[in-house]
From TrEMBL:
CDD domains: 6PGL (cd01400)
SUPFAM superfamilies per the UniProt record, alphabetical: NagB/RpiA/CoA transferase-like
NCBIfam families named among the record's database cross-references: pgl
Keyword Hydrolase assigned: yes
Pathway in which this enzyme or protein is active: Carbohydrate degradation; pentose phosphate pathway; D-ribulose 5-phosphate from D-glucose 6-phosphate (oxidative stage): step 2/3
InterPro entries: 6-phosphogluconolactonase_DevB, 6PGL, Glc/Gal-6P_isomerase, NagB/RpiA_transferase-like
Organism: Promicromonospora soli
Record bears the keyword Hydrolase: yes
GO MF: 6-phosphogluconolactonase activity
The name this protein goes by in its record: 6-phosphogluconolactonase
Endpoints of the signal sequence: none
Length: 257
């Protein structure tokens, strides 16, 4: 199975620092653009190297005070199934890089931050996935069938060197999971247990942005862009309803090291 989207844009920046700055500027501009026509804005965050570096770049941007953060809701594409405050949780890293500052100084309500549950509050990744699905459905358009999610304005995804996005790994059963969330076991990247959005939820987003840096990502970036099967390169299956952006540094795009 491979998936294509009518509007796909590949943007290559010289290195990972510039990439993070560019993702941050693009994200803040997107939030401001959406806020000029509707509210609330729904953004899905990612973990990973460039994902967290981009949040740190947002925190340092002069555009931060221009956003009405009371109208922004923040979700996650995946989470490592670890206790609250664990430094390896995507949530913890995002809070340290950006969210704590937005809450303390820029009016982001804690209630607008929607982390995926971990073992502090649920017994298993499946229970965490079900709880998150219910949270998404409650904030969604209210179809009442448990499959709804909010209309995500931007859904950010990092990509691993194996081509995984969120916690959807090559050859794993999570690739075929239905509904909006799935519990993950046996992740090849630690920790083994995780919670992830499904492809159905990812593909419902208005815009999907895949961010990747480093030569170790180049082979899978090229494979995804060439339409290799999603079972082998999950990133190729991450497409948005209106736009899919591949935001890369030169190494991930296959340029010289
Ligand atoms: O474990 C994860 O890894 C991916 C990619 O991380 P990176 O450090 O190679 O950029 C990340 O997108 C995902 O959210 C995270 O849980």
């Amino acid at each position: 199975m491979s998936v294509t989207t009518p509007v796909r844009l590949v943007v290559v920046h010289p290195d990972k620092e510039v990439l993070a700055q560019a993702v941050a500027a693009r994200l803040l501009t997107r939030v401001l653009d959406v806020q000029s026509v509707r509210s609330p804005v729904h953004v899905v965050l990612t973990g990973g190297t460039v994902g967290i570096a981009s949040l740190a770049a947002v925190a340092a941007s002069p555009l931060v005070p221009a956003v009405d953060w009371s109208g922004v809701h923040l979700w996650w594409g995946d989470e490592r199934f670890l206790p609250d405050d664990d430094p390896d949780r995507n949530e913890t890293q995002a809070r340290d890089a950006l969210l704590d500052g937005l809450i303390a100084e820029h009016g982001l309500p804690e209630a607008n931050v929607h982390p995926m549950p971990g073992p502090t509050s649920v017994a298993s990744p499946e229970e965490g996935a079900a709880a998150y699905a219910a949270l998404l459905a409650a904030a969604g358009p209210g179809e009442g069938d448990g499959s709804a999610v909010p209309a995500f304005d931007v859904l950010l995804l990092g990509m691993g060197p194996d081509g995984h996005v969120a916690s959807l790994f090559p050859g794993h059963e999570g690739l075929a999971a239905r509904g909006t969330t799935t519990g993950v076991h046996g992740s090849p990247k630690p920790p083994p247990e995780r919670v992830s959005l499904t492809f159905d939820a990812i593909r419902s987003a208005r815009e999907v942005w895949i961010v990747a840096a480093g030569a170790e990502k180049a082979e899978q970036v090229a494979a995804a862009l060439a339409g290799k099967p999603v079972t082998e390169v999950p990133a190729g299956g991450a497409v948005g309803q209106t736009r899919t952006l591949w935001l890369l540094d030169a190494e991930a795009a296959g340029g010289p090291k």
